[in-house]
Amino acid sequence: GGADMTPRWPGWRHLPRDARDTLFLLGVIGWTVVPHVAHLPLWCVLLTGAVLLWRTRLALVNGALPSRWVLVATLALATLLTLWSFKTVLGKEPGITMAVVLMALKTLELRAKRDAFVVFFLGFFLILTHFLYSQSMGVAAAMLVSVWGLLTALVLAHMPVGQPSLRQAGALAARTALLGAPVMALMFVLFPRIGPLWGVPQDNLSKTGLSNSMKMGSVAEVALDDSVAMRIRFEGPPPPAEAMYFRGPVLSRFDGTEWRPLSPFPFAMQSRINLRTSGPALRYEMTLEPLRLPTLPLLEATAAPPQIEGWRVLPGTDLQWLTDRPIFERLRFNAQAHLSFQHGPVSQVPGLQDHLELPANHNPRTVAWAAKLREQPALAQADPRTLAATVMRHIGTAGFTYTLAPGEYEGPDTIDQFWFDRREGFCEHFAAAFVVVMRALEVPARVVTGYQGTDPLPVDGYYLVRQSSAHAWAEYWQAGTGWVRADPTAAVAPDRIRRSRNLTPPPGLLAGALGNVSPALLAQMRSSWEAINNRWNQTMLNYSRGQQLEMLRRLGVNSPSWQDLALLLMGALTSLALLGAAWAWWDRHRVDPWARQMKRL
To answer: Which of 51, 327, 402, 559 could make an S-S bridge to 493, C-beta 3.0–4.6 Å?
Structure first.
């Protein structure tokens, strides 16, 4: 038989020096690339994995490296595949894809120390690119390990003589990183926060969330996402759960299938919103995760715009608060709301007619049911409030079911299907059907989307509002009062509104097993992680230019600016450099004079 060409593992301590260092470097590269797998094309993941495995085999058998023509051909193929995947080689995604391929291919030409240095610094660059996607605590910890690994490989590259152990090289790399930590902390505190440098990463950008439109089932899709949408901290006792409505897009135009805003530009023409409040204001702090919409889902009813550094907040036409651009970053601000309020016109105005429109020849059975209801003697002259109460009683007593999985509603008459045939739905089904019935009763009505309720217990002082708290409710117009909130979900599932008991999808395998063994332990682990993550967000990711300038004020600078920050940073770095030079000079003179003379000789 032929010789067995399969490489055998001789044991870590018996590996040649070059093979050991190469395998360690390949492991660090693999660790650095893995978090990018979710963002890379499949071909890039497969190509990078194949190249790294090939290089591992060559290191074990001490095989010859491939020729440069093989590398050039592979690089050309990767460039063509990048063009095929992204239609360009410029931009974040194609640039990172090419950087991963280049680093993998560079491991196939580690012929000189210069080649190793190129791999090291490509690795450091790739570490930076992770923060273009996420600045989470987990990514930061993983990349800290990558930095230590690359520094260890760099130390090994400078130790060509003898057999320095990985433990010695790793310890020296760790000490080097610790020596650089004060400079890192100084840069973090003082380097001026100048946009858009700190606005590029779209951290925790949920794949679901509020939308400027609503179809049957769209809110249920959001409710399957258990990630945090925002964190609320109240000054004083929190309001009851049934009062916590966080207002998002208002949807008034219905084409039979989809609900949309009445206007694509829902900005108020006047600077004051049509809001009448009573009672004390409730002050709160909100930390809002990225929404992808130019909408602030503030607590109803927030009377004044919150002040957010670098953002312009504008009043909307329907008690909304809008931003001058979509929200792709985490925001933290203070606001105040009045839980007792009225809003909207108190008498007939031309715009109310838009909230009576229904698409022609759609949902005929629901329209006929409303007409028959109106013919009842007791309701012939009833006001909108009485009609709304009658419809809500029907929802609560006619056998409707509140569920996250009502199945698909298709066709032009989805409201008819829900109201008469299946009677199963989530909040958007009930809100949409209520609005259609009220409009058929000639009462202006509309759908409001947002969030309702919070987790029952605070985490680290903050009440959590999750994507699973996404909600749709309704408003109808009453003369003398204005717009009145009506939540049909409360009629069929009162615990959803009064106690914030959301419907939850089935848990994953690990969470389900842990929850079966100890639900309290699972809840405690989740709360602890979210508390730690919130501290990370508050202290690290939300460290802003305003906090930097406030620090300068405490240091005695009357009118601080980013130029003052830059001067302070340069002065601090210069002082550290002088201290380092002084220490090096002192350390040099600690050497035994006989050893110095021997070195000169």
So the answer is: 402
CB-based contact 149:31 (threshold 8 Å):
yes
Q: Quote the CA–CA distance of 486 and 484 in Å, as a whole number.
A: 6
196 pLDDT exceeds 50?
Answer: no
pLDDT digits (tens, 9 = 90+) for 198-246: 444 444 444 456 788 888 777 767 767 777 888 999 998 899 988 999 9
Task: Give the closest residue to 397 by CA, choosing from 492, 479, 465, 478.
Answer: 492
**What is the DSSP pairing of strand 258-260 with strand 295-296?**
unpaired
Look at residue 441 in the predicted model and tell me its pLDDT: 93
Candidates 118, 194, 179, 189; CA nearest to 150 is: 118
Per the structure block, which two tokens stand in for 238?
């929190």
Residues forming beta bridges with residue 465, ordered by sequence position: 230
Strands 463-466 and 445-452: unpaired
- Which residue matches tokens 């609900």? 259
Alpha helices in 158-265 (DSSP H): 166-190, 218-223
Which pTM does this prediction carry?
Answer: 0.66
Element of type H or E holding 157: helix 137-157
Euclidean distance between CA atoms 471 and 476, whole angstroms? 17
